[in-house]
Amino acid sequence: MATPSTQRVTPRRRVALLLGGSAGYLDAVGYLTLGLFTANMTGNTVLLGIFCGEGRWGAAGRALLALALFFAGATLAGVAARRQTRLAGVLTVEAAVLLAGLAYWVVVLGRLRGTVEVPGAFALIALFSVAMGIQSAAVRRVGEHRVSTTYVTGTLTSLATDLAADLLTGARRSQDGAGRARDGGTALLAGVWGSYLAGALAGGFAEFRWSLWAVAAPVAVLAGMAIWDLRGAAAAEAR
User: Fold this and answer.
1) For 39-143, where are the E strands, in sequence order?
2) pLDDT digits (tens, 9 = 90+) for 29-39
3) Sorting pLDDT into bands at 50, 70 and 90, what band is 119?
4) Helix or strand or coil: residue 170?
5) Is the peptide bond before 119 cis (omega within 30 degrees of 0)?
6) Taking 70 as the threshold, does the pLDDT of residue 25 lie above it?
7) pTM (2 decimals)?
8) What is the rounded distance in angstroms from the CA atom of residue 180 to the CA atom of residue 157?
9) Which burial class, exposed, middle or buried, applies to 43 when counting CB atoms under 10 A from its CB (0-12, 13-18, 19+)?
10) Helices (H), the chain
11) Nearest C-alpha neighbor of 72 from the set 8, 155, 136
């Protein structure tokens, strides 16, 4: 029988997996459309160094813009978390920012397909990076485990160290609480990485066929999760 603690962790685990898929999806769409990552700031940091080394100052400025606005979005979400804003509110803001980017692409730029060139790309880089920054701070912990839904380098490192501990100690099937916690964490980390990869595959497929219209899919996912969170809160209050 599920304990109240397990019941609280399970929805948060599902949210982490869905957000991981959304980040991989948007990273693929952003890279193909704008030439930069919108969630993977490690990649953008490397690109910033490369562009500066090559003297490509315009491209370096776009990478720096993505880094700065991602940081701003994460700061905004961090403030919201400290004020105990519901997850639904944070996800709604993220969805609204993504929707604003899509509207800008269609209405202001008048684009229906194709990559976006300078200067129109600046606004899209800013909006999508803010959205991913917001997401990066929206869910940072699932039960006992710290997770990231916008990059997977740390996720793979944590997954490898957990697996190494299991192999060395033989504790993967342990019945003690620590063994169960680690085993659950291993599954969670593997799931986040897998969902990120699946999202990237889906994003590449969608961008190839629908260009930036593909952003509508994660907007719908985020809206659905926000509604789910609000319904869960209403059900909890009713009890």
Assistant:
1) 141-142
2) 999 999 999 99
3) confident
4) coil
5) yes
6) yes
7) 0.86
8) 20
9) middle
10) 4-34, 41-54, 57-82, 87-103, 120-138, 153-169, 177-210, 216-238
11) 136
Residue reference for tokens 């899509």: 102
Element (H, E) at 118: none
Instruction: Report whether the peptide linkage leading into residue 218 is cis, meaning its omega lies within 30 degrees of zero.
Output: no
**Exposure of 117 by Cβ count < 10 A (0-12 exposed, 13-18 middle, 19+ buried)?**
exposed
- Tokens 């803001």: give the residue: 93
Look at residue 145 and give its three-state secondary structure: strand
Question: Looking up tokens 């100690």, which residue turns up?
Answer: 169
- Residue 172 pLDDT class (50, 70, 90 cuts): very low
Token pair for 108: 């202001």
**Measured torsion, CA atoms of residues 93, 97, 99, 100, in degrees rounded to the nearest 10:** 130
Average pLDDT over residues 143-161: 79
Beta bridge partners of 146: 141
Q: Which two tokens stand for residue 231?
A: 């319904």
Confidence tier at 152 by pLDDT (50, 70, 90): confident
Q: Which residues have C-beta within 8 Å of that of residue 215, sequence separation ≥ 6?
A: 26, 29, 98, 101, 102
> Binning pLDDT at 50, 70 and 90, where does residue 145 land?
low
User: Using alpha carbons only, what angle is made at residue 90 by residues 44 and 182, rounded to the nearest 5 degrees?
Assistant: 75
For residue 146, the SS3 value is strand
pLDDT of residue 115: 67
Helical pair 153-169 and 177-210, crossing angle rounded to 10 deg? 150
Alpha-carbon span 221 to 235, nearest angstrom: 21
The predicted-structure confidence for 54-104, as pLDDT tens digits, reads as follows 999 999 999 999 999 999 999 999 999 888 888 899 999 999 999 999 999
